[in-house]
């Protein structure tokens, strides 16, 4: 077993250089030599000679040492859908002699771009400028850059990797909601709780002073009247906290355009909450999306994909009800296949007293609003209608 593994390792440089077609030609050449000598078959020997000469000629195309300095430079690592993404590939001959022509291959997403590199003198450089399509929200892996030498018949192929892969984030389109969400997220000063605090804005009661209390909270009038130090207590308040529950279940959407609109709505709501310094939590079927920073939120949204899932919207709401306990506003963002019964069941899993809405994304539909019990549901046909939808929600 060890000798077999050792043989495989020894032959790896050969098998890595030979293409599938090249290995077939090599096997045919060996078989032709054996058959020609054993059977004394002249025609087969001639075929063996021709195949051998072809392989030797192919070898001449891939001989030589590669010594390149290669720079892969993306002008921007984060763009929005539809924006122009530009990159630069710079190849320099780092050897002391001229290098024969080669090809640089650059994997971009699921495709590969090939850039011919001419014969380079020592120290000479070659530059290529390329653009990357950004028609769809995604995270595109760019690179690693590989230099390739191959013969015209494709028998042999020699590769060397020169750079690391880089990621290009294609962020979803978002809509500025300044002035639109204020009415909907109207608990600007927080929501009062029953938790008692020694320092807040909502006065609760007086109590006896104990060593360590902040003297700024001593109520001097009561202290003078009773002759005993008294301090103020407060009810803790919560800052506005938005929770967005985005369904990533494939069965909840009729087609991909619905999901793209839903991701854009989610991003718009989250960014507005971040901009207004409110807390935001984004929850999808697979878990939480980072909402502590604009860039991290958009990066994570760029990675989202529709996936088959048994977990329905009610399960997402159950997780939110158990984990996002400080939410003051909760927004469902779903596709057209989510039924009113699903929305009613999901909203029933959320804590009482929390403001809840749902945005159902149906590209091309007219903006409309309806209610399912206590739940307000907006049907949204395009991202540009989102500010108006929020104003209608706050007016309702």
Structural features, described:
The protein has 396 residues and is an alpha/beta fold. Helices cover 31% and strands 31% of the residues. It contains nine helices and 20 strands. It has helices at residues 2-17, 20-39, 42-62, 220-226, 256-275, 294-303, 313-323, 340-348, 386-395; strands spanning 68-74, 78-80, 85-93, 102-108, 111-117, 125-132, 138-142, 146-150, 157-161, 166-171, 191-197, 202-208, 230-238, 241-246, 279-284, 287-289, 329-334, 355-361, 368-372, 375-380. The strands form five sheets. A seven-stranded mixed sheet has the order 16-15-14-17-18-20-19, sandwiched between helices. α8 (340-348) links the parallel β17 (329-334) and β18 (355-361). InterPro entries: DUF58. This is DUF58 domain-containing protein. It holds the Pfam family DUF58. Keywords: Membrane, Transmembrane, Transmembrane helix.
Key attributes of the depicted protein:
396 residues, alpha/beta, Immunoglobulin-like, seven-stranded mixed β-sheet, 31% helix
Integer average pLDDT:
84
The CATH C-level name of the largest domain is Alpha Beta
The name of the CATH superfamily of the largest domain reads: von Willebrand factor, type A domain
Terminal Cα span: 76 Å
From the spread of the alpha carbons, the general shape counts as elongated
**Which oligomeric form is depicted?**
single chain
Strand order of the largest sheet: 16-15-14-17-18-20-19
Q: Tell me which CATH architecture of the largest domain applies here.
A: 3-Layer(aba) Sandwich
Residue share in helix: 25-40%
How many structural domains can be distinguished in the coordinates? 4
Q: Major β-sheet, in short? A: 7 strands, mixed
- Report the sheet-strand fraction: 25-35%
CATH T-level topology of the largest domain: Rossmann fold
Domain DUF58: 206-360
Transmembrane segments: 21-39, 45-64
InterPro entries: DUF58
Protein name: DUF58 domain-containing protein
